[in-house]
Specification:
Elements: H1 3-28, H2 31-37, H3 42-69, H4 72-95, H5 101-125, H6 135-149, H7 153-163, H8 166-185, H9 200-213, H10 215-245, H11 251-276, H12 282-303, H13 306-312, H14 317-348, H15 354-365, H16 369-380, H17 385-422
Helix pairs in contact: 1-6, 1-7, 1-8, 2-3, 3-5, 3-9, 3-10, 3-15, 3-16, 4-5, 4-8, 5-15, 6-11, 6-14, 7-11, 9-15, 10-16, 10-17, 11-14, 12-14, 12-17
């Protein structure tokens, strides 16, 4: 297969994911506001995040085996079209004023399962669409376009929600899923069948065995498990609650705040690809990301204290800028951590196990997201936001510092092994 064809395939993959991400962002930015507006609490918002994440995690190990056994392109197309059909069904119920919270949660459970099937197949197919030397840049491009597609989504979503209501947002998301599936159909990909069948459940454990045997990958998975559990609910639960109950800004300004956060993630993806896209520079990006993570969380925590609000004003432009700046750097830091880790794992993994390994990695690293969101929702119904985030910041600094020390330790071990091998 020619390099041009590789590039065409990558373009179709990127366009499809960009469109679906755009539609999902437009809908999801309004969902916490919608739930709070219909009388839901912080626990209800946490429950939505729980329903949106947990099914994917449960299906991930099985999805990895399916992604290695079956045609990855076919999986991607079917799951995208299925997600579109599910969201458009919710659109119909919303239009008829029959949409209830249990029905809404059920729809998100279905989409979450389909996404759990899509994600390992999508990550597994990428190394077969680009040359190994360009893999880091390809991962950066995927992350950059994902965040770029989400850049205008918050403002569009918040504006459409205020002016046209939630039904329109459901319709947009469903249509975007269908267009994304059509883009995936255009990818030219030859599935390589396994030479022998070693048994489904044997394959199911391959990803766990591989990660367990690689100390570096195992450590990264545990670190991401803790960090994602602490960070993601800040964006999905804490921020909309704090914005609705404490700050005096409009829904449109909430959309602009989300856009600023996404812009930070976009810049992070771009900088990782441009500055650290060459072979062997992944750990440098990780170190920078860790320091940015600790600094931005400390700044965000300070801004939540009542005295900070009294001093700066809960509706002032200065406070809005500082809040957006700290959260933007936080999302940038996440990209400086996530993209290098993904690249390292891809480079360390054999192709025939790729989907299984990534499904296992995804299950481990994202395993705390639904429970973290649920716990945040319950805690925030009883504990002040600033106290909750202060404790989270302290935990994050401790975990990041320990992981940073392990990175330097592994670096010294690698240099020692190189010296011994030269002798």
């Amino acid at each position: 297969m020619s390099e041009t064809k590789f590039n065409n395939n990558l373009i179709f993959l990127l366009i499809g994911r960009t469109i679906s991400n755009m539609g999902t962002t437009i809908l999801m930015v309004a969902m916490p506001l919608y739930i709070l507006d219909i009388g839901g609490s912080a626990a209800s918002v946490g429950l939505l995040s729980f329903a949106a994440f947990l099914p994917s995690l449960i299906i991930y190990p099985f999805a990895g085996v399916i992604g290695d056994r079956c045609n990855r392109k076919t999986i991607m197309v079917i799951t995208k079209l299925g997600s579109g059909a599910t969201i458009l069904t919710l659109t119909a119920f919303s239009y008829l004023s029959l949409l209830t919270l249990p029905l809404l949660l059920s729809g998100f459970v279905v989409v979450s399962v389909l996404n759990g099937l899509f994600d390992p197949a999508s990550k597994g197919i990428l190394p077969q669409l680009v040359h190994r030397d360009n893999l880091s840049r390809a991962n950066s491009a995927v992350s950059s376009l994902r965040t770029l597609s989400s850049l205008a989504g918050p403002v569009i979503g918040a504006t459409l929600y205020v002016t046209l209501g939630i039904t329109v947002l459901f319709a947009i998301n469903g249509i975007c899923f269908f267009i994304s599936g059509l883009c995936d159909i255009l990818i030219r990909y030859n599935h390589k069948k396994q030479e022998r069948d070693i048994g489904f459940f044997t394959e199911l454990t391959d990803g766990f065995k591989f990660i367990a045997s690689r100390a570096e990958i195992r450590g990264m998975c545990i670190f991401l498990l803790i960090i994602f559990s602490l960070i993601q609910p800040i964006f999905s639960v804490t921020l909309p609650l704090f914005f609705r109950t404490v700050l005096d800004y409009s829904d449109s300004q909430y959309g602009y705040l989300q856009m600023i956060i996404v812009a930070g993630a976009f810049l992070g993806s771009v900088f990782v690809g441009v500055l650290f896209g060459k072979e062997g520079k992944e750990k440098k990006a990780l170190v920078i990301g860790l320091f940015l993570l600790m600094g931005s969380m400390a700044g965000f925590s300070v801004l939540l204290f009542p005295r900070s609000l009294e001093f700066l004003g809960s509706s002032s432009l200065v406070y809005f800028g500082l809040l957006g700046g700290s959260l933007s750097i936080l999302s940038l830091a996440v990209m400086f951590i996530n993209v290098p880790v993904q690249t390292i794992i891809q480079k360390r993994s054999p192709d025939k196990y790729m989907a299984r390994i990534f499904s296992t990695v995804a299950m481990i690293t994202k395993g705390g997201l639904p429970f973290g969101a649920l716990i945040y929702g319950i805690v925030l119904d009883n504990v002040a936001v600033y106290l909750t985030i202060s404790v989270v910041t302290l935990l994050m600094i401790i975990v990041s510092g320990a992981f940073l020390a392990s990175l330097f330790g592994s670096g010294r071990a690698e240099r020692a092994d190189a010296i011994l091998s030269e002798r």
